[in-house]
C-alpha cells in the first residue's frame, strides 16, 4: 500500500488532518474509523468507478465514486534546528522511512510561531514554514555525510565501488537507492569526490526531494487573514481546512448532511436536528468551500498520489464480461499502479504466482488481448490470463 506521511511543526494541524482523512463513512470503508494505531491510519484517494460507464451493478463505490485506500502516518512534530540537537528523533525518522511521499502541513493563518506556540493570527509569516522541513531533513542528511566522509571515501576505494553506492548504503534505511544518488548528482551537477560544503548541501536537498516527494498543504486557511493568503498565493500548495473537513465527515457520519470527501459542497439533510450554532458553523464551512473549491483535504491526498507519485488506478477482474472476481464480486479491487506499468506488473501485484505464470491480458472494454509490454491507462479494467491461479 502507498503510504503518505503528514509532517510539520507542532500545532499546524497534523493530527486534525489525520483524524479527518482517516474518518470514513460506512459506505466508503468497511470500518468507519480506520485508525490502526495512534499514528497509523487508512485514508482514501478519490477516483471514478467504471461501473456506471460499463453498466454493471457495483457495491464498492458510492454512486460511481470510488475510494481507494492508502496508508497515512501522523508524524511527530519537528521544530527548527532539530538537526543541530540530538537529531531528528528515531520516531520521526522511522515514520519518514515508511512514507512514499510527505504532506507538509503549514499553518497558513500565521497563528503559530516557529516552534508551534500559539501567537496572534496573522503575526507569523507562513512562507517561513514552507522551507523549514526540507531544510531540516536535508541538513540532517548532510551532517551524517560530512561526519562519515573520510570513512565513505576509504570504503569506496577499498571495496572498488563508487562513492554513490556508499552514500546509498548510508541512507538505505530512508529508502534511498543508488539511482536516487546518481540522479541527484546529475541534477545538481556535482562531482562527489571533489564537492565542497555548499554543493553537498544542495546535493542532499535534491536527494531528499527525489526520494521523498513533498506536497505543501496550507492548513487553517479558514482563519487565515488576507495578508497570509496573499503571501502564499502563487506558491505550489493546496489550501485546506482540516478542521472543516473533520466537522463535515462527522456530520455526514451522523447523517446530518450528505457529503462525500472531495465534494465541493454538501447538503443538509431534511430532518437533521441541528442547533443554530451548528448550522452557523456549517454555513461558515460552506463559504470556505465555495472560495477554495472544497476543504482541500481530499484534494491534498489525491494530488499526492496521482500527481506527486504519478499513480493510475487499474481494476483487475477475472470475468471480463461481468467484471467480477471468482466470487462474483463486481470490480472488487482497485490498484494504484505507477504510470508506465504493464499488465505483467499488475499480475505480479495481484500475486507473485500469477505474475510468474502470466500469459496475456484482456482489456475488458475492448475485449482484445493486450501484450505484456502494453502500457496500462488510468481506469483500465484488465483480466489477466495466467498458467497459475
Ligand atoms: N481554524 C482551524 N484550526 C485548526 C485547523 N486544523 C487544526 N486546527 C487547530 O489547531 C490546533 C492544533 O491542531 P493539531 O491537529 O493538534 O496540530 P498538530 O500538533 O500539528 O497535530 C488545534 O486547536 C486544532 O483545532 C483548521 O483547519 N482550521
Ligand atoms: Mg499532533
TrEMBL record:
The keyword Metal-binding does not apply. Coiled coil: none annotated. CDD domains: TGS_MJ1332_like, Ygr210. Signal peptide: none annotated. Pfam families: MMR_HSR1, TGS, YGR210-like_G4. GO terms for molecular function: ATP hydrolysis activity; GTP binding. Residues 2-223 form the OBG-type G domain. The keyword Nucleotide-binding applies. One of its GO terms (cellular component) is cytoplasm. Belongs to the RelA/SpoT family. This is Redox-regulated ATPase YchF. It comes from Methanoculleus receptaculi. The lineage of its organism: Archaea, Methanobacteriati, Methanobacteriota, Stenosarchaea group, Methanomicrobia.
